[in-house]
Amino acid sequence: MDFGRLITAMVTPFEPNGGINWDETAKLIEYLIVEQKSDSLVIAGTTGESPTLSEAEKLELFKFAVKQAAGRSKIIAGTGSNDTAHSADLTKKAENCGVDGILLVAPYYNKPNQEGLYQHFKTIAEATSLPVMLYNVPGRTVISLSTATTLRLAQIPNIVATKECASIDQVTAIVAGATEGFTVYSGDDSAALPALAVGAYGIVSVASHIAGAQMKEMIGAYVDGKVTEAAKIHQSLFPLFKGLFECPDPLPNPAAVKFALNERGYQMGGVRLPLVSPSESEVAFIRNILSSL
């Protein structure tokens, strides 16, 4: 399975009452595929506020996205959690919804050791025939999937990729040690081009909601050997990459990008508690970034 170079970790649009806004979900999927050139979409991942989505909502989102995308973009279901048995069961149900792949975030709070992480991902991968992408994001989960454990998991036939947020050093080490066919994606927009330079295949992005077409151009330029052109695009987008997460104090994803989409005319609604929408100073900061694009 080739998930492509540009994968968008899609937000979940909400109604004012907090329910899922299905009309806007359809519009968002079209916009991300047609205008922002996403090769794949992650549905109900952490950017989609998976911790506060019910299982019924996730399954409905999977089915809806598969139907709306209609084969134009791969649909990757976010089925990871810190409960191995529940993630395995949800993964089976997601497969029945017709999704193309699975994204499994490292388990949070429990703080398993490396053997526990290995057994967690192995158990879930064995519950499905779909290709699986690991997701290592120690800034959110506290624990980090080591290079050695990632490479061990890469030996499992349907574990085919990882979304890596630990460091460029770890991206380098995984790429260097991985078997042919195992791909590494940066999970950090600001590290996308540096990650490509050390052998990553692409990016699982949040900023691609706003600048996906430019990011696709940047990746294409790099792949074609136009490194200076790729660097210029990266430099122009760097304030957006950093600003969506710093704005000006760290603002939990996806509050900033949802507001940015609202500013662009896509009615994403707010975020579910315990997340909150941007403050007045954060709103001004985001608007300033958007005005400079």
Short description:
The protein is of the alpha/beta class and 293 residues long. It is built from 12 helices and 8 strands. An 8-stranded parallel barrel has the order 1-2-3-4-5-6-7-8, surrounded by 5 helices.
Structural class: alpha/beta
> What is the ordering of alpha helices and beta strands?
EHEHEHEHEHHEHEHEHHHH
Tell me, briefly, the overall form.
globular
Percent range of helical residues? 40-55%
How many beta strands in the DSSP annotation?
Answer: 8
Number of helical runs? 12
Query: Taking all residues together, what is the mean pLDDT?
Result: 96
Oligomer: single chain
List low-confidence stretches.
Answer: none
Instruction: Output the radius of gyration.
Output: 18 Å
Largest sheet, described in full?
8 strands, parallel, barrel
> How is the largest sheet built, in terms of strand order?
1-2-3-4-5-6-7-8
In what range is the share of β-strand residues?
Answer: 5-15%
Distance between the termini: 34 Å
Offer a few descriptive terms.
single chain, globular, eight-stranded parallel barrel, 293 residues, alpha/beta, 12 helices
Structural features, described:
By secondary structure, this protein is of the alpha/beta class. 47% of the residues lie in helices and 13% in strands. Helix 11 (255-263) crosses helix 12 (280-291). The longest helix has 20 residues, at 227-246. The two termini are 34 Å apart. The model has no long low-confidence stretch (mean pLDDT 96).
